[in-house]
Amino acid sequence: MDWGKENRLRRLIKADGHCFFLPIDHGYFQGPTTCLEKPGETIQPLLRYADGLFVTRGVLRNCVDPRSDVPVILRVSGCTSVVAGDLADEALTTSIEEIVRLNAMAVGVSVFVGSDYQKETLRNLSELVNDCEDYGIPVMAVTAVGRELEKREARYLALCCRICAELGASVVKTYWCENFEKVVETCPVPVVMAGGPQCETEREVMDFVHDGMQRGAIGINLGRNVWKHPKPVAMMKALRAIVHKKASPDEAMDIFNAS
């Protein structure tokens, strides 16, 4: 692996091989998402617990202090919205020059396998890998399913993750599911779990994160179940303990309740 690419990955994935990324990129298709109306204020107490920040260039420039030492994963796909016909109809939004200019440690792009725009989003991934490899920048493929929640099962997600890895992604972000090891074991690159919709209880979050880590995920890219929670710092501390300290769900709940 090129030195620059390996160095960037090592800044995002810690010495224990695990990572906790904080995504705040939701506004690129949702607009002023609840609790992200002022992203800079939302993330200010949370950044110290994050290994990476997943963010668009606009929010990065206008809401994130450039003195921050938290590595940035730049969201570089978009051009759709919740009022459009199909959220899968995405295009690349950011040039390689812009990615370098913003000092991104990695970039993230959504793919919609099985949708009407499968070919276009997989081409987006492929073209991004082509550009980023020349500069040693890792690409994180995000296996998005839009509103088709029934697709969040192992057979489908394993298909998505393997295709992303085959096309050159360095890391794949996907949803937790039952039998999650079937997704991880057939993907030759590291797998990070997405948070998905907000869970009803804290324990529900702790349980699926712990299960996914036990079954081979290297970490989480989890936002709404943190910054939409009434106690976001407590959630960050508890989840970080699962990711980096191998805490059980019970131990994580103890940390949450004590925070």
Structure, described:
By secondary structure, the protein is an alpha/beta fold. It has one domain (3-225): TIM Barrel, CATH 3.20.20. Helix content is 41%, strand content 15%. It is built from 12 helices and 10 strands. It has helices at residues 3-12, 27-30, 39-43, 57-63, 96-101, 118-133, 154-166, 181-184, 202-214, 224-227, 232-245, 249-258; strands at 19-23, 52-55, 72-75, 77-78, 91-92, 106-111, 139-143, 171-175, 191-194, 219-221. The strands form 2 sheets. Strands 1-2-3-6-7-8-9-10 form an 8-stranded parallel barrel, surrounded by 6 helices. A two-stranded antiparallel sheet has the order 4-5. Strand 2, helix 4 and strand 3 form a beta-alpha-beta unit. Helix 9 (202-214) crosses helix 12 (249-258). The longest helix is centred in the middle third of the chain and has 16 residues, at 118-133. It is globular, with a radius of gyration of 17 Å. It starts with a helix and ends with a helix.
Quick synopsis:
With 259 residues, the protein is an alpha/beta fold. The protein has 12 helices and 10 strands.
Q: If you average the pLDDT, what whole number results?
A: 95
Taking the alpha carbons of the first and last residues, their distance comes to 41 Å
Q: If you consult CATH, what is the topology?
A: TIM Barrel
Helix content: 40-55%
> Approximately how much beta-strand content do the residues carry?
15-25%
Q: CATH H level: which superfamily?
A: Aldolase class I
Gyration radius (Cα, Å) is 17 Å
Strand order of the largest sheet: 1-2-3-6-7-8-9-10
Please give the domain count. Answer: 1
Class based on secondary structure composition and strand pairing:
alpha/beta
Low-confidence stretches: none
What's the CATH architecture? Alpha-Beta Barrel
Q: Give the H and E element order.
A: HEHHEHEEEHEHEHEHEHEHHH
**DSSP summary, beta strand count:** 10
Helix tally equals 12
Largest sheet: 8 strands, parallel, barrel
CATH class label: Alpha Beta
Shape: globular
